[in-house]
């Protein structure tokens, strides 16, 4: 039991909280926990449902399971070493923090620098960002990457690729230390460009799907695709709304801009499909939704709403063109089997959003969010104010971000895939590719006859780890 100053006795569970330190904002902390959970729901169940429905029936379990496993694996990596590599105060190199545990009660309950929330809030939110990045990347690899290779890939990629992007772009010890301030409000570069480029690169090393799957790969449940897409869209309220780490002045603007850009992008993509193909495609509408969400992410809290709609118009048309026209014309794109077109929806849309941030970012909003004079204004406003050099400098910084994130992910994703290929096969065996989930996991997504019985198929399967055997010889 607990007693207040009036002498009234509270039950123990209702005792007044006298342990809250002066720096702690319950409103900010509560919103941050909510936002982080919304980002988590984008992955589990959002992308679990989306991936499991977008692929052929025979790959529903494997695709959904890749997302579920990645979510769990990233959390362990994050608290054991990756969080400090991304946001730690101890520098390992100019582009990476020193690994360390994010498990200490004292540290987790202390104040996160510059914010009115505990460190634990920050760790949780950034974990959700890291997890969805790897899961987005998985969209390029569905339907043929060995699950055992994926189990190796997730921790290695988070450790050697994601952490570098987060440290260089977001940490004050990264590019900012050299005066290169890159506008990336909530991860257009760190999350979407990196996942799109890394997914495309990994798809090259893993190789294409079974020829029949690649030529004929209809979604197994379009209604569930819409359900997963709904989790993704509404979860982006927390994705972009949580980026300021407070329930502050620009938070609601960022959320409104997010939905405006997304709705505009979906409408434009749908219009393009109807004009050129005379069909209103549901899958096309989902792709337009995703490119709108991605495009606004680096700019959501630093642009006006008219600019968000302009970005939506561009994200509904430019990625549509690269996916529907350029992809079919050039052998470079045809050579790589990017299952869910993650390169176009994330790398192209993320780059577009990052560059438009360097053009449309409003000085007043930048000052509110980052502090006065921290970032140069967008090129449009610098021209209007008669200071074009500042705008061109910011646009140059955005281009540096694109170049670095792209080059790093191509290089290290390739190295990771090569390393894993020396341990286990990157690609499933041909027998597994032909049958799908039943051969890989011994399970099927849907019971289509009888009482859930399965047709017994006897296969002479190859050894699970032939590469290990080679290494041991």
TrEMBL record:
<dbReference type="InterPro" id="IPR029020">
    <property type="entry name" value="Ammonium/urea_transptr"/>
</dbReference>
<feature type="transmembrane region" description="Helical">
    <location>
        <begin position="282"/>
        <end position="300"/>
    </location>
</feature>
<feature type="transmembrane region" description="Helical">
    <location>
        <begin position="219"/>
        <end position="239"/>
    </location>
</feature>
<feature type="domain" description="Ammonium transporter AmtB-like">
    <location>
        <begin position="31"/>
        <end position="446"/>
    </location>
</feature>
<dbReference type="InterPro" id="IPR001905">
    <property type="entry name" value="Ammonium_transpt"/>
</dbReference>
<feature type="transmembrane region" description="Helical">
    <location>
        <begin position="182"/>
        <end position="207"/>
    </location>
</feature>
<dbReference type="GO" id="GO:0008519">
    <property type="term" value="F:ammonium channel activity"/>
</dbReference>
<feature type="transmembrane region" description="Helical">
    <location>
        <begin position="306"/>
        <end position="327"/>
    </location>
</feature>
<keyword id="KW-1133">Transmembrane helix</keyword>
<dbReference type="InterPro" id="IPR002229">
    <property type="entry name" value="RhesusRHD"/>
</dbReference>
<feature type="transmembrane region" description="Helical">
    <location>
        <begin position="122"/>
        <end position="142"/>
    </location>
</feature>
<keyword id="KW-0813">Transport</keyword>
<keyword id="KW-0924">Ammonia transport</keyword>
<keyword id="KW-0472">Membrane</keyword>
<dbReference type="InterPro" id="IPR024041">
    <property type="entry name" value="NH4_transpt_AmtB-like_dom"/>
</dbReference>
<feature type="transmembrane region" description="Helical">
    <location>
        <begin position="399"/>
        <end position="420"/>
    </location>
</feature>
<feature type="transmembrane region" description="Helical">
    <location>
        <begin position="149"/>
        <end position="170"/>
    </location>
</feature>
<feature type="transmembrane region" description="Helical">
    <location>
        <begin position="59"/>
        <end position="81"/>
    </location>
</feature>
<dbReference type="GO" id="GO:0005886">
    <property type="term" value="C:plasma membrane"/>
</dbReference>
<feature type="transmembrane region" description="Helical">
    <location>
        <begin position="339"/>
        <end position="361"/>
    </location>
</feature>
<feature type="transmembrane region" description="Helical">
    <location>
        <begin position="245"/>
        <end position="270"/>
    </location>
</feature>
<dbReference type="Pfam" id="PF00909">
    <property type="entry name" value="Ammonium_transp"/>
</dbReference>
<dbReference type="InterPro" id="IPR018047">
    <property type="entry name" value="Ammonium_transpt_CS"/>
</dbReference>
<comment type="similarity">
    <text>Belongs to the ammonia transporter channel (TC 1.A.11.2) family.</text>
</comment>
<feature type="transmembrane region" description="Helical">
    <location>
        <begin position="31"/>
        <end position="52"/>
    </location>
</feature>
<protein>
    <recommendedName>
        <fullName>Ammonium transporter</fullName>
    </recommendedName>
</protein>
<keyword id="KW-0812">Transmembrane</keyword>
